[in-house]
């Protein structure tokens, strides 16, 4: 059974990956848009990295989404 | 002029502080609820710390709010 924190990172990584693929970005392309290294993006998507708030903001911006969406928060867009 | 990243941390810290005060928690009380040190909470509220995603989740949980709310995302609760 995964620890709660590990599950949180895994869920977050899965949402980042899903959003990246929905945008049609490769990991290389996406890493460049974020200003981060491709291997770093890979470890985030696998839920292996407890990354920082500033990198979270970079990732949300590069995906043109909100941080709340990356955490699966119910937002107004879910109401439409 | 603050760098964009510094401003992001300052804005986030201000929202954490506002939410903590709205709950009526002292920094000591809140730190204990988060499982973090009081001085760590203080540095977050002052926007001095680029803290991690797992600590962000702990803080949102202790405030009984969503991560999106801490980032000022427009959520369904803003619609009511």
Automatic annotation (TrEMBL), chains A, B:
Q: Which SUPFAM superfamilies is this protein grouped with?
A: lambda repressor-like DNA-binding domains
Superkingdom as given in the UniProt entry: Bacteria
UniProt KW keywords:
DNA-binding, Transcription, Transcription regulation
HTH cro/C1-type domain ranges (all copies)? 16-70
Annotated SMART domains: HTH_XRE
One Pfam family matching this protein: HTH_3
Q: Which PROSITE patterns match?
A: HTH_CROC1
What is any one of the record's Gene Ontology cellular component terms?
Answer: cytosol
Please tell me whether the keyword Transcription is annotated for this protein.
Answer: yes
InterPro entries (UniProt xref) = Cro/C1-type_HTH, Lambda_DNA-bd_dom_sf, TransReg_Diox_bact_type
Q: Name one GO molecular function term.
A: DNA-binding transcription factor activity
Which named protein is this? Transcriptional regulator
- Source species, please? Tamilnaduibacter salinus
